[in-house]
Amino acid sequence: MNIPVVYEDEWLLVLNKPCGLLTIPTPKKELRTLTSILNEDLKEKGLSCRLYPCHRLDRETSGLIIYAKGKSMQRKTMEIFGQKKIKKTYFAFVQGLLSDSEGEIRNPLEGKIAITKYRVMEKRKGFSIVEIMPLTGRTNQIRIHFKRIGHPVVGETRFAFRRDFKLKAKRLCLHAKKLEFVHPATKKIISLVAPLPSDMEDFLNKH
């Protein structure tokens, strides 16, 4: 697969994951995931190193994802995530028009505190374009939080019923657009951006 590389050095690889691809297998033990594709490619090239994901993106979510070249670097990078020292920014289209131009959703998930900040970038007919900054990293946090405030992500099928909304999309309109963090090895600030995917651009052009 032609998966765009956004950043690479001797320790880390950052990719722009396409929508529809798992990061790692679920309990169903899927064989084809982003991680398996990457490591099979390394094996075919005769390289002995392995890539390890430092976080996950949902199958339906596109955008920036960090891989470590080795378990030690994976552990160090995951520690940065655990310390909330990686700034993540997502773009999403959500159903309806949000009443506030910016806000903060505080709603526990998995029995733990979960906080999602957002800013409305633009309002269109029947939906809002939103920039989202999750301050915690719970599973499906963004999708559940926006469903709970009555504005699920456009294209949502897991946490909302498609029939309840006139506006439809062929994919979940959620994209991990920006990452900013201090590199665990070099200590330099890394700031990365993944452009909005063509299918989300097409949706905007049609709506």
Helices and strands in order, then pairings?
Elements (H helix, E strand, L loop, with lengths): L4 E4 L3 E6 L16 H11 L6 E3 L8 E8 L1 H12 L4 E9 L6 E5 L8 E10 L2 E8 L6 H8 L25 E9 L6 E5 L4 H9 L1
Parallel strand pairs: 4-9
Antiparallel strand pairs: 1-2, 2-4, 3-4, 5-8, 5-9, 6-7, 7-8, 9-10
Based on CA inertia axes, which overall geometry fits? Answer: globular
Radius of gyration: 17 Å
- Determine the oligomeric state from the structure: single chain
What letter string, H or E per element, gives the SSE order? EEHEEHEEEEHEEH
CA distance, first residue to last residue: 30 Å
Tell how many strands the DSSP assignment holds. Answer: 10
Poorly predicted segments: none
By helix and strand content, what is the structural category? alpha+beta
Mean pLDDT, as a whole number?
A: 93
Largest sheet: 10 strands, mixed
Number of helices: 4
Strand content: 25-35%
Helix content: 10-25%
